[in-house]
Structures are given as C-alpha cells and as structure tokens.
C-alpha cells in the first residue's frame, strides 16, 4: 500500500472583531499635524456631531466633533464627553497648539483631544472619519496589514510613509505627523495625491519607471508644491501595477538602507493590495499563509502540499535563520507579544528585501526566516548582523541570531529549524555574541548532545574520574575542575594556573594527585577524551568550562 501525503488543512478565516478604528489612525484624518492630547491607543466605533450644550447621549466609544465650540465651550464639551464614555473629541484650533483649558480638561476626563485645522470643513472631516470606520478590516484592522507595514517602513527608514493604490488613493500611512509636509497632509485629507504633483510625476516619468520593476526612484524637493524629497517604489504583481509606496524625508535624513528596505516592503505589500482590490480578507489570507509556513517549519504538514499553497518549489533549497529576542526579563507577557509582533514585521521587511519569496515564522517563542535561493554563509551572517542590530535598537532586548544552515529540500526544513533552536539555546550562554552559526557552534552542540545521551545511560561512565568529582564535593577540594581545565588548556600550566588563580606548582600537584587517584594515563588520547566527557558530565554548569561558547 502506498503512502498518501496528508491533505494540507487550511485554517478557517479568523472571526472579525467589532468594527472600530484605533485613535492614532484617525489622528491624521482629523488633524494631520497632528495637534492632539492624550493616548492614541483607544478604539473609536462611531462619530457624533454635537454643538455646545447639546446632550451627548449615545456618544460612548465615539469621536465627538465639537462644532462651533470656542475655548471655554470646548473644555466643557471635553468634560461632558468623558462623562458619557466618549473616546475622543475634535475641536477647532487657531494657531499651532490646543488651548490650555482644553488640554487640562482632556487630562482630567481621560479623553483624547484632536485639533481640527481651519482649512478642513466639519462635514468633510465627518465623511473622512466615517469612511475610515466603514473601511474593510483588512485595511484598518489589527495585525500585519498595510498600516502595520507602513509603520514598520517608517520606523526603519526614518521617514513619513504613504501607501497608494493604482488610482493614487492613499490606503495606508504612518510616520510622525509633525514631520509631514503640506503635500502629505493634503494627500491624507483628500485620500489621494493632489493633481499638480501627479502632473509633475507624469512629466518626470516616475510612474513609468516604478511600474517597470523594482527601481526605487528619488523625487527631489518641490518647495512650490509643499513637497520635501521623496523615495517611491512600485508595488507590482508580475507585470500588473498595483500601487506605490512613498517615503517622505522628515526632520532627519532617510536611512542609508531605505531603498533596499522599500524593495522588501513592496514585495510584502503586493499580496495585501491584491486583497484591497478584490475586497478579500487580508487578515485571513495572512493567517492562512502564516499557519502554512508554520507547518512547513515544524513538519506538521506535508511539505509538497504546503509548497504548492505557498508558491514554492518543493525541491528548492532554503537557508534558515533563527532569532530570539531574549525576553526573559520582559515586564509583561503582553509587552513581550507586542515586541515579537514588531520584530516579526521588521524581520519580514528585511527578509523580503534580501530574498524574494522569503518567509518569516514564529515558533517555539522564536522567529525563523526561511530564505529560498541559498547563499554563502558570509553574506547570511552579515544580513543577520544587520537584522540583530536593528532589532536590538527597536525592541530594547538582547536579540541574538543563528545561521542554522541549509535545507537541501523543503522537507528538511524542520530538522534545520531544530538545529537553529538548539544553537540559540547554546548561544544564550554568551550574550555578548550577536550572531552565531551552526558551523561554528557544531562542536559545542555535539558535546552537549553527547552529554545528554550519556546522562540517559548511567552504565556508560568512567568510574574513577566520576569518583574524583564526588571526592571534591565531600572534601572541598578542586581536583576535578583543575583536571578539566588542564585538559581543555592542552596542558598549559601557566595559563590554567592563572585562570584558577593559583600558583603553577599548586596546579601541578593537583594534576599529579588526580592522576594518582584515578589511574588516568594522560598520554593516552582515549583516556583524555573519556575524562573530559566524564568531567563535563559531573561538573555541568551553564558556563564556558562546561559548554564552550562560540
């Protein structure tokens, strides 16, 4: 009877959450500055228009548009909004800052206040907010959607980011509103790029260039149009153009690697914009892809069937890189989860920039990059070092990575993943090392695996050497440790004595005494190897003596 590969289960789409948009995503709609006061992580489920003195019944969870409210009236409306459970209040501002009384009322009421600029009409603001609330969950919902991708790009490039579809409509944006130029503000408020700037792009042939491939085009500053310098790349599915990603230079120069990172972001955005066009559920699609990728990494599903779903040749080779954020000291599980989600987004952009069809998967508390089209080890180490440097800066944790090696075919990925997992455990003993390789860690892993096997087979022992360690414990001597370090140090008495902080003659006496008690023949290589294994087994501790680091 022939074996039939198991049918690959495709997980059902996750249930949609209640309709709502986080305040920070509406801040640019109402106040693209933004001039605001209060936390931006609350969720808005409705918009209510009210005038001074008007009851705010039914405003719980809403953004209240305080139409016609002057300074004192606005402060009173903020207080009233807080009393009924409103999330935020938008008020008209004159100048660059919110009135002090309004800010004080916001802090006391626990309500976010957004300042509406003079040029934006109340009815237009309401229409934009309602459009945001009615947008599909795959555009505005939580998770690694276009907004999350835009935020990752903004963080990595140090710029202000907009994602546009093929009709030049803004579908996602991120970055400091304080650094946004006039063109970006107008694009967000109008949900599309202003015509004068589009005309300039046509004259410069920008769109023709970005539709032709993965070229990153620089558009110089245009002061007369209120536009700072920008980088743009096309989002394309084969020969079909889907949209663009724009990065505007803010108060700081753009990161040196901004063009490379944009290429990675454009590859990720392509599948998400396909869902935007066809009104698909991007969250469900991402969840399905992540579930399948996890199955490929862990071997839970048939590799050939998974490869067909993921669009990968099952006979393809792939490199695997394992990353650990070292979250043991994290304050809360929620904070650790948030850092892992942020790290996964950053790692996805880096991986996509490095290799087309790259996959990033979370498993066993760690992150794994599966990179098709294998490369030599040295470039992979450099890539991993750049990634770790970025993640350490963004997450504030002691991130480490291991280049786990190459899977000769996709079915071999689980074994390489396990190798990376075990290598990360070992690398954790030397936190000062940012990136290790399985090639470099293989000897230490072999020793550790051998000790585990010996530990499970008590009959496999060097009894005389085991008795030496027991003698040390009962008599308070250090013959066993001195002998292990002596063997590790190739008999270099001076160096080992310095490590032990004893006189060389003291070390010589300890070695002679250990030999006499055990009958060990130091001229016999098998005696030396057996003694080193037994001593490591008896003196096991998480230090360099027991498990040599990289």
Q: How would you sum up this structure, described in words?
A:
By secondary structure, the chain is α+β, with helices and mostly antiparallel strands. Helix content is 48%, strand content 16%. The chain is built from 21 helices and 17 strands. α6 crosses α13 and α19 packs across α20. It starts with 20 loop residues before the first strand and ends in a 12-residue tail after the last helix.
- Strand tally, please? 17
Largest sheet: 5 strands, mixed
Proportion of residues in extended strands: 15-25%
Flag low-confidence runs: 1-19, 136-144, 542-550
Whole-number mean pLDDT: 79
Q: Given the structure, what is the number of helices?
A: 21
Task: Offer a concise description of the structure.
By secondary structure, the protein is of the alpha+beta class. The chain is built from 21 helices and 17 strands. It has helices at residues 23-30, 71-83, 100-109, 122-134, 137-140, 146-157, 182-190, 195-204, 206-210, 258-278, 282-298, 303-310, 333-354, 377-395, 413-427, 438-455, 463-475, 479-488, 493-500, 504-518, 525-538; strands spanning 21-22, 36-37, 43-44, 46-50, 62-66, 88-92, 112-116, 159-165, 170-174, 216-219, 230-237, 240-249, 318-324, 359-363, 366-372, 400-407, 435-437.
Structural descriptors:
single chain; 550 residues; alpha+beta; five-stranded mixed β-sheet; five-stranded antiparallel β-sheet; 21 helices; 48% helix; elongated; disordered N terminus; disordered C terminus
